[in-house]
Design brief:
The complex is a heterodimer of chains A (332) and B (365). Chain A is globular. Chain A has helices at residues 6-20, 44-48, 60-72, 91-98, 101-104, 132-136, 149-161, 172-175, 219-232, 250-260, 275-286, 309-315, 319-331; strands spanning 24-28, 53-55, 76-80, 112-117, 142-144, 166-171, 203-206, 211-215, 237-241, 244-246, 263-270, 296-300. In chain A, strands 2-1-3-4-6-5-10 form a 7-stranded mixed beta sheet, sandwiched between helices. In chain A, strands 7-9-8-11-12 form a 5-stranded mixed beta sheet, with helices on both faces. Chain A has 13 helices and 12 strands. Helices cover 40% and strands 12% of the residues of chain B. The radius of gyration of chain B is 20 Å and the shape is globular. Chain B has 365 residues and is α/β, with parallel strands linked by helices. Chain B is built from 12 helices and 10 strands. In chain B, helix 2 (52-77) packs across helix 12. In chain B, the strands form 2 sheets. An 8-stranded mixed beta sheet of chain B has the order 1-3-2-9-10-6-5-4, sandwiched between helices. Chain B has a two-stranded antiparallel ribbon with strand order 7-8. Chain B has helices at 14-18, 52-77, 92-99, 115-120, 125-132, 164-178, 196-207, 239-243, 255-273, 300-305, 311-322, 326-349; strands spanning 10-11, 29-34, 37-42, 107-109, 184-189, 212-218, 221-222, 225-226, 247-251, 276-281. The chains are: A alpha/beta (332), B alpha/beta (365). The A-B interface holds A 25, 51, 54, 56-57, 59, 61-75, 92-93, 96-97, 102-110, 139-140, 142, 163-164 and B 107, 139-141, 143-144, 146-148, 150, 155-156, 158, 160, 163, 165-178, 196-197, 199-201, 203-204, 207-208, 358, 361-365.
Chain lengths: 332, 365
């Protein structure tokens, strides 16, 4: 048992799965000789060799396609997309080829695509994206979004063992977060050995009876802070971390909303057409009678991702924006 | 890879490539590309390891592919084909000759015009026919118009043809990863040669020296777009030079020539010289799909030239001279008629698939 940072959790999961299964290999840009843009695979080339830690030419459709073809032959690729944003280069390979392959009878596609996602330090419009909504509409894909070291390790191991294409969102903002800055509730010890976090299951991070926040990824941290603030005002907010986005934990969403009657959906991605819109629709369809207030959403503004720090801050959701939305909901 | 020109090879000068007549100039020879050396090499069918029975088999698969597609045309006119159909009329020599060079453990990544390649690999006719009719008894039980039986080591294409090139490279990567000595044969076309995925997939295979043979079937048309609007290089085979791989330009209407070069390329790919690029030329003696009124845009002279380069007729004429009697040929055709009739009867009796099942197969378990 150990306390791991978010990055260490991902590295450990990769290492353990490579050791466990000789058919698991890594492929991507700069991951072997370079150890990865974020150092996640440092040392892997020496340990596992160039056949299992494959430095690919700079062509995402090419190497994701290769991962897919090898998957039909039983190999399990863990693909590193250098930044989640570059997944647009291989949209077709994932959406048209990989997602429906099993359904069409072309065979299962057991690949995991690691996607360093989200905004961090003015990275601009091509190094800040949260790509989940682009893929949410595609049956056959799975999308997971761990926000804690525990979930990062457990979900990555689950993704690698899954027989479907899994998009694994990992957050650049969390890589370097020191353990001291991770709220205690988000840093349970990360066990060694053979365990996984099941894909499709969310988790209640904080119990509450007045309001529900449904979120995933980095905004979980902002939501927890906002819940603390409201708690000081006597309003108890339940915080649900979905962890998996596709498939997602419908029962958890519905049971929490039925308990509190008020719901705020928060994600770092743009608000319009973000995955939260689907959860709002689910609640409206299946828990309408439990609602005491309209469903609210907090997400990034519907603009291209801006560069300069004040613009980026204005654009992104944050604790203050969540607090304001919670107060509005609570007063309804 | 930088091999000296063999004694039987004649270096090519640039002017020859500028005025290449794809059929006349390739009738008796192949164009070979090794490093920066481009040369003519005479065809050498006498060196092939083919026995009498192989010739009969090659002819059988070509004639069966042709007859199968003609039967699909009839069924389409009877309203029994739900979507559309794509034919490979004119490429039977390419489909059969190339697949015939494969070993069972090799992987085939075909296009939508390679029905005879499936037959060579052992595809049974009944599920194939039911596939075209969208029935439960079809290869993928009515899920997709494109098809492949995975147990025969065939990959199922998607309509974005170029996409299959990186996927094929991945199958070749798995072969190298396992060191199992198998190779991959991928079929693509002049249209797909323009896609980014052609470059990304073939370059990936070249960098990692994967056992992949990629055949670009140049049939002069990508739907309605002629090749002069598709690429500006002298021919597609020369692109091999840019990837640092061997290449060939061959006559795709000659089944023995196709077999000779595919077998050689597969063998070189297995030995680590891969990937290898082959441009093969044959007519698309039909429309893009069964709905396509190709007469509206393919020049009349081109259509009238199809008969003279019909690969099934060419091979039949050659066989009649050397290998097979008229009687044996009619015997084969009688067998084909009987097999197709049985396949059609099976397909018509096969029920249509039912809706609820599809919800269970979105994810693999």
């Amino acid at each position: 048992m150990a306390q791991l940072t978010y990055r260490q959790a991902i590295t450990t999961a990769l290492w353990e799965e490579m050791k466990r299964d000789p058919e698991v290999y890594l492929i991507g840009e700069d991951i072997g000789l370079g150890g990865g843009a974020f150092g996640v695979t440092k040392g892997f080339l020496d340990a596992f060799g160039a056949m299992r830690v494959v430095d690919a030419p700079l062509a995402e459709s090419g190497f994701v396609g290769a991962a897919v073809g090898a998957a039909h032959k039983g190999l399990r690729a863990v693909v590193e997309m250098q930044f989640a944003d570059f997944i647009t280069e291989t949209f077709k390979m994932l959406v048209d080829y990989a997602a429906g392959a099993h359904f069409r009878g072309a065979g299962p596609v057991p690949i995991t695509i690691r996607l360093p996602a989200g905004a961090l330090k003015s990275a601009g419009p091509y190094h800040s994206h949260n790509p989940e909504a682009w893929f949410y509409h595609t049956p056959g894909l799975k999308v997971v979004a761990p926000a804690t070291p525990y979930d990062a390790k457990g979900l990555l191991k689950a993704a690698i063992r899954d027989n479907n294409p899994v998009l694994f969102l990992e957050y650049k903002r969390l890589y370097n977060l020191p353990l001291s800055q991770i709220p205690e509730v988000l840093r349970p010890e990360v066990p060694e050995g053979d365990w996984t976090v099941p894909i499709g299951k969310g988790r209640i991070i904080r119990e509450g009876k007045h309001l529900t926040i449904i979120t995933h990824g980095t905004t979980l941290y902002d939501a927890l802070q906002a819940a603390e603030t409201l708690s000081d005002e006597g309003i108890e907010v339940e915080v649900v971390d979905l962890r998996s986005i596709l498939p997602f934990d419908r029962e958890l969403i519905l049971s929490s909303v039925k308990k509190t009657g008020r719901v705020l959906i928060v994600h770092e991605d743009h608000k319009t057409g973000g995955v939260g819109a689907e959860w709002a629709a689910l609640i409206a369809e299946e828990a309408f009678e439990s609602l005491d207030a309209p469903i609210h959403r907090v997400g990034a503004l519907d603009t291209p991702i801006p560069y300069s720090p004040p613009l980026e801050e204005y654009f992104l959701p944050n604790t203050q924006k969540i607090v304001e939305a919670l107060r509005k909901l609570s007063a309804y | 890879m930088e091999r000296a020109v063999a004694p039987s090879e004649t270096p090519v000068n640039e002017a020859e490539l500028d005025h290449l007549d794809y059929f006349r100039d390739l009738r008796d020879r192949h164009l070979t590309i090794n490093g920066l050396r481009i040369a003519w090499r005479p065809k050498s069918p006498q060196t092939l390891d083919l026995a009498e029975n192989d010739f009969r088999q090659l002819y059988y698969f070509m004639a069966l592919g042709r007859a199968f597609e003609e039967r699909i045309g009839e069924l389409f006119r009877q309203g029994l084909i739900p979507g559309t159909a794509f034919f490979g009329r004119g490429n039977e020599a390419l489909s059969v000759g190339s697949s015939y060079a494969l070993r069972p453990e090799d992987t085939l990544v075909p296009m939508h015009r390679n029905l005879p390649s499936h037959l060579v690999r052992g595809q049974a006719l009944k599920p194939l026919m039911a596939q075209y009719l969208g029935r439960e008894g079809g290869i993928n039980r009515g899920r997709e118009i494109h098809y492949a039986d995975r147990s025969l080591n065939i990959f199922q294409l998607i309509s974005h043809i170029g996409t299959m090139i990186p996927v094929a490279a991945g199958a070749a990567f798995a072969a190298k990863y396992r060191g199992d000595g198998s190779a991959v044969l991928a079929m693509s076309g002049d249209g797909a040669s323009s896609t980014g995925d052609f470059h990304e997939g073939f370059n990936f295979a070249a960098v990692h020296k994967l056992p992949l043979v990629l055949i670009l079937e140049n049939n002069f048309w990508a739907y309605k777009t002629p090749i002069r609007l598709q690429y500006a290089c002298k021919n597609l085979a020369l692109r091999a030079i840019g990837y640092g791989t061997p290449g060939y330009l061959i006559d795709g209407t000659d089944v023995l020539g196709v077999y000779e070069i595919t077998r050689e390329a597969l063998s070189r790919a297995r030995l680590g010289e891969g990937p290898i690029l082959i441009e093969s030329v044959n007519p698309r003696a039909c429309g893009h799909s069964i709905y396509d009124a190709y007469q509206d845009y393919v020049p009349k002279e081109e259509i009238s030239a199809w008969d003279a380069i019909d690969p099934v007729r060419l091979f039949e004429a050659r066989l009649k001279k050397e290998k097979i009697t008229e009687e044996q040929i009619s015997h084969l055709h009688a067998r084909i008629d009987r097999e197709l009739a049985e396949a059609v009867a099976f397909a018509k009796k096969s029920p249509f698939p039912q809706g609820p099942d599809i919800l269970e197969d979105v994810y693999a378990t």
